[in-house]
C-alpha cells in the first residue's frame, strides 16, 4: 500500500515537473498557396493608446480593402509583450496569420527562421516597387545583402522632448545640442527632487536603442563586419559607460529610473518631475497624461559635438514597424494585395497621421500633417542621422544580453556603487560569452 | 404476459449447472475494468498534456534547436550531449549563471517553504479554538490563495516601486527605518521582495491543509493530555505534530515543487530579465530558451532540473516513509 502511495506521489510529481519541460511541436510547409482566396488573418502590433483604439482605427480601413477586393481581413491586435512569443509560436507550429506586423529590429532574427516571405524583385513589383520606400527604413527590414523579410509600414526615430516650463524655471534658453550641454543644463535642473533626464533603465530594448547610438558616436559597433559579436571594444565600453554615467557620475538621471520599464519616465515628464526624455513618438501619451502640446518642445537627440549627421554624428536608431507575410499563407495573392493596400499613399497618410509616426513611403511624406515641428525633427533624423540596429540573425539575443548588462549597471549606479570602465567591460564580456557561438 | 416474459428470463439464465460461473466472471471483469475505464480520460489527458510534451522536451535537449530550425524541428541537427555539457560547464558564463540561479532557487525554496509551513501551521493551530470572528479571519487568511496570481503580483510590483511604492512609503517616509528609499525590484533586495510575495501567496495553502489535518485529531487525546498535565507546547510536540505527519509529508513536498518551479511570481515582478539576486531557475530557463531562441539548451536545462527534482522527491519520499514506518513500529 505504502509502495503504491509512493508510486502515486512520484507520478504526481512527474506531472508537476513536466510543465517546465513542455514545449510545442513543429511542422513545415514551404511557399504559399491560394487555397482560401477570400479571407486573410492579420496580426497588427499595438500602435495606439490601447488595443481597442487600434481596432477602431484599423477596422474602417480593412472594410475599405474588403470593398475593393472582396477579401475579408480578420484582425487581431497583439500587445507588444506577447507579439514576439506569438510569432515564435506561429513559426514553430506553422499555424500563423497570413500577414503580420513586426518590430523592425526583429527583421533579421525572424528572417533567419525562414518563416517569412522574402521580398524579392517580383514580390516588390506587386506592391509598386522597392523605390517607393525610404532607404533607411528598407535597411531595417532584413539581413544586409539579402532580400528584405518585410516592408516598412510606420517609421519612427528618437528625439529629445523637453519640458518648456522646467527649462524656463532653471533659466535655460533652449534644448542642448551636445551631451556636454545636456549634462551642464542637467546640473542646473537636477535639484529639489527634480531631475534633468528620464531613462527606462530596466527596459532592455530601450537600453539597447540608446547604447547603440552612443556606440555609433564613439565610432563603434556591437557586431563586426562578419556579423560576430564585438561587445568589448573600447568604443562600445565607452558608449555604455557614458549612458550609465548620466545617472551614476553626472547625476542628471534620477536613481529611481533604474527600475523603470513601463514608460514611467513619461509620467514624470508630464508631472514636471523630469525635464527631458529621449523618446520616439511621445505626443499621444503626453496628451493622455494631461500635458498640452505647447508645454513641450522637440529637438534632435544630442551628439558628442557639432550637428547630427552620418557616422559618429548618428543620433537615433531607425525605429519602426514592418509588415511581413507568412510564407505558408494560403492566400498569397490576397496577402500581397493587402500589403499593397496598407502601403498605398492614402492608407500610409491616414495611419501614420493617427499614430504620430512618419510614412516610410516617400510619396506619403508630402502631406502637411507630417510637417509639424515635432514630426519634422523626426523626419530629418530619419533622413539624415538615423542608423539601423545591427541586421544580424542574433539581434534578438544581443538585445537580451547587452540590454540586461546595462540594466544591471544602472542598478549598480542607482545603489551608489561606482561604475568603472573595468566593470562595464566585465559585464559586456559576460554578455558576449552568452551569445550563440554559431 | 407470463408467456412472453419467460423466454427473456431463459435467455439471461440458460439452464445448466455451469451457467452461474461465466456470469460471476463477467461481473468480476466488469468490476475490475470499471475503475480503469473511469481513469482512462484522465490518463489520456495526462499523456497529452504532460508526458508527451515532456518526452518532446527530452528529445529537443539533444538537438541544436535554434532560430534557424524552429520552423522545421526535424531538420535541426543532433547535438549529442553538447547542450548538456554547455549547461554544466560551470567555468563558462552559461553554466556559471545556471549554477548561480540553482543556488538562488534552493535558498529561496527552503526559506519560502519553511516560512509558509510555519505561518500556516501556527495560524491553523490557533484557529482551532472557537472564538468570535474565527470564520471571518479564516476567510481573510485565504484571500491571497483565492486572488488571481497575475493581478496580485502586479499589485505587489507597484507596492515595491522605489519612488512611489507603499513599502518605501511606510519603511522610509513614515517609520524612518532606512536612510534612503530602497530598491526592491532591482539589486540584492529583490530576493527579499520575491520571498515576501512568495510566502504571502503560499502560506494560505499550508494553512488550509494543516487546518483540515487538525480536524482529524481526536479531541480526547488533548483532553487526556491536559489531565496528565501536558502544557500547550507539549501537546503540540507530542500530539499535534506527530498526528500531522502524513499531512505534512505531502504538504511540504507540494510546496517545495510549486516554489522551486514558480515562474509567475518572478516574471510578473521583474519581467523577462530577473535581477541576479532573484534569478529563479524557471525564469532563467525561460530566458535561455524563449528570449535567446535557443530551445535545445533551454530543454537540456529543463531536463537537468527534472532529474534533480525527481531525485530530491525520491529521496524525500524514501526518508519520510522510512521514518513513518519506524514511528509506526
Features of the shown structure:
heterodimer; A: 438 residues; alpha/beta; D-Maltodextrin-Binding Protein, domain 2; five-stranded mixed β-sheet; four-stranded mixed β-sheet; 17 helices; 11 strands; disordered N terminus; B: 329 residues; mainly alpha; MetI-like fold; Bact_solute-bd_prot1 (chain A)
Written overview of the protein:
The complex is a heterodimer of chains A (438) and B (329). With 438 residues, chain A is α/β, with parallel strands linked by helices. Chain A folds into 2 domains: 39-156 and 318-387, D-Maltodextrin-Binding Protein, domain 2; 159-317 and 394-433, 3-Layer(aba) Sandwich (D-Maltodextrin-Binding Protein, domain 2). Chain A is 45% helix and 12% strand. Chain A is built from 17 helices and 11 strands. A 5-stranded mixed β-sheet of chain A has the order 2-1-3-10-4. Chain A has a 4-stranded mixed β-sheet with strand order 6-7-5-8. In chain A, strands 9-11 form a two-stranded parallel sheet. In chain A, α2 links the parallel β1 and β2 (72-78). In chain A, α10 (234-248) packs parallel to α16. Chain B is mainly alpha-helical and 329 residues long. Chain B has a domain at 89-279: MetI-like (MetI-like fold, Orthogonal Bundle), CATH 1.10.3720. Helices cover 74% and strands 0% of the residues of chain B. The longest helix of chain B is centred in the N-terminal third of the chain and has 41 residues, at 20-60. Chain B is globular. The termini of chain B are far apart. Mean pLDDT of chain B is 87; it is low at 1-19. The chains are: A alpha/beta (438), B mainly alpha (329). Chains A and B meet through α1, α3, α4 and α16 of A and α2, α4, α10, α12 and α13 of B.
Amino acid at each position: 500500500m505504502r509502495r503504491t502511495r509512493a508510486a502515486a506521489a512520484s507520478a504526481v510529481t512527474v506531472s508537476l515537473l513536466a510543465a517546465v519541460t513542455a514545449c510545442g511541436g513543429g511542422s513545415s510547409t514551404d511557399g504559399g498557396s491560394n487555397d482560401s482566396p477570400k479571407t486573410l488573418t492579420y496580426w497588427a502590433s499595438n500602435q495606439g493608446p490601447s488595443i481597442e483604439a487600434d481596432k477602431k482605427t484599423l477596422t474602417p480601413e480593412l472594410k475599405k480593402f474588403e470593398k475593393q477586393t472582396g477579401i475579408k481581413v480578420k484582425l487581431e491586435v497583439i500587445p507588444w509583450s506577447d507579439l514576439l512569443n506569438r510569432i515564435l509560436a506561429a513559426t514553430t507550429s506553422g499555424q500563423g496569420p497570413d500577414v503580420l506586423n513586426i518590430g523592425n529590429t526583429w527583421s533579421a532574427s525572424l528572417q533567419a527562421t525562414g518563416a517569412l516571405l522574402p521580398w524579392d524583385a517580383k514580390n516588390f513589383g506587386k506592391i509598386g516597387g522597392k523605390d517607393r520606400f525610404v532607404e533607411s527604413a528598407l535597411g531595417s527590414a532584413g539581413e544586409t545583402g539579402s532580400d528584405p523579410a518585410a516592408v516598412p509600414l510606420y517609421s519612427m526615430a528618437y528625439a529629445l522632448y523637453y519640458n518648456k516650463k522646467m527649462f524656463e524655471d532653471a533659466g535655460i534658453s533652449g534644448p542642448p545640442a551636445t551631451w556636454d550641454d545636456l549634462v551642464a543644463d542637467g546640473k542646473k535642473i537636477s535639484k529639489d527632487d527634480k531631475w534633468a533626464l528620464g531613462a527606462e533603465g530596466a527596459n532592455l530594448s530601450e537600453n539597447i536603442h540608446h547604447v547603440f547610438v552612443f556606440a555609433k558616436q564613439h565610432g563603434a559597433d556591437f557586431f563586426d563586419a562578419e556579423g560576430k559579436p564585438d561587445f568589448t571594444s573600447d568604443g562600445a565600453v565607452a558608449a555604455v559607460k557614458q549612458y550609465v554615467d548620466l545617472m551614476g557620475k553626472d547625476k542628471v538621471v534620477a536613481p529611481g529610473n533604474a527600475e523603470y520599464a513601463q514608460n514611467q519616465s513619461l509620467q514624470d515628464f508630464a508631472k514636471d518631475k523630469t525635464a527631458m526624455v529621449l523618446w520616439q513618438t511621445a505626443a499621444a501619451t503626453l496628451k493622455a497624461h494631461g500635458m498640452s502640446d505647447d508645454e513641450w518642445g522637440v529637438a534632435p537627440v544630442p551628439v558628442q559635438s557639432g550637428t547630427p549627421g552620418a557616422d559618429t554624428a548618428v543620433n537615433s536608431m531607425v525605429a519602426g514597424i514592418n509588415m511581413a507575410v507568412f510564407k505558408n499563407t494560403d492566400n498569397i495573392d490576397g496577402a500581397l494585395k493587402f500589403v499593397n493596400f496598407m502601403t498605398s499613399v492614402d492608407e500610409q497618410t491616414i495611419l501614420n497621421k493617427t499614430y504620430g509616426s512618419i510614412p516610410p513611403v516617400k510619396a506619403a511624406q508630402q502631406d502637411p500633417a507630417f510637417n509639424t515641428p515635432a514630426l519634422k525633427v523626426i523626419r530629418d533624423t530619419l533622413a539624415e542621422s538615423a542608423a539601423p540596429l545591427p541586421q544580424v540573425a542574433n539581434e534578438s539575443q544581443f538585445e537580451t544580453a547587452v540590454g540586461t548588462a546595462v540594466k544591471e549597471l544602472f542598478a549598480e549606479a542607482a545603489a551608489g556603487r561606482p561604475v568603472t570602465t573595468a566593470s562595464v567591460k566585465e559585464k559586456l564580456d559576460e554578455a558576449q560569452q552568452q551569445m550563440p557561438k554559431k | 404476459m407470463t408467456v412472453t416474459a419467460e423466454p427473456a428470463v431463459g435467455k439471461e439464465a440458460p439452464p445448466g449447472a455451469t451457467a452461474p460461473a461465466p456470469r460471476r466472471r463477467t461481473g468480476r471483469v466488469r468490476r475490475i475494468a470499471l475503475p480503469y475505464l473511469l481513469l482512462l480520460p484522465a490518463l489520456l489527458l495526462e499523456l497529452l498534456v504532460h508526458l508527451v510534451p515532456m518526452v518532446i522536451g527530452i528529445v529537443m535537449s539533444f538537438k541544436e534547436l535554434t532560430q534557424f530550425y524552429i520552423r522545421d524541428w526535424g531538420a535541426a541537427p543532433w547535438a549529442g550531449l553538447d547542450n548538456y555539457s554547455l549547461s554544466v560547464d560551470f567555468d563558462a558564463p552559461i553554466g556559471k549563471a545556471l549554477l548561480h540561479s540553482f543556488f538562488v532557487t534552493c535558498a529561496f525554496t527552503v526559506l519560502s517553504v519553511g516560512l509558509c509551513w510555519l505561518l500556516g501551521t501556527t495560524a491553523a493551530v490557533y484557529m482551532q479554538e472557537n472564538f468570535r470572528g474565527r470564520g471571518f479571519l479564516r476567510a481573510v487568511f485565504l484571500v491571497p490563495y483565492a486572488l488571481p496570481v497575475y493581478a496580485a503580483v502586479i499589485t505587489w510590483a507597484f507596492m515595491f516601486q522605489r519612488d512611489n511604492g507603499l513599502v518605501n512609503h511606510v519603511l522610509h517616509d513614515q517609520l524612518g527605518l532606512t536612510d534612503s528609499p530602497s530598491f526592491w525590484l532591482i539589486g540584492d533586495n529583490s530576493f527579499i521582495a520575491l520571498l515576501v510575495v512568495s510566502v504571502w501567496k503560499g502560506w494560505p495553502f499550508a494553512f488550509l491543509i494543516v487546518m483540515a489535518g487538525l480536524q482529524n485529531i481526536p479531541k480526547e487525546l488533548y483532553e487526556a493530555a491536559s489531565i496528565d498535565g501536558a502544557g500547550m507546547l507539549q501537546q503540540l510536540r507530542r500530539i499535534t505534530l506527530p498526528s500531522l505527519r502524513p499531512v505534512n509529508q505531502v504538504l511540504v513536498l507540494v510546496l517545495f515543487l510549486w516554489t522551486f518551479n514558480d515562474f509567475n511570481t518572478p516574471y510578473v515582478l521583474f519581467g523577462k530579465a530577473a535581477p541576479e539576486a532573484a534569478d529563479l531557475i524557471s525564469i532563467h530557463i525561460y530566458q535561455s530558451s524563449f528570449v535567446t531562441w535557443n530551445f535545445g539548451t533551454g530543454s537540456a536545462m529543463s531536463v537537468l532540473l527534472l532529474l534533480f527534482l525527481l531525485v530530491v522527491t525520491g529521496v524525500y519520499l524514501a526518508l519520510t516513509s522510512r521514518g513513518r514506518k519506524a514511528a509506526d513500529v
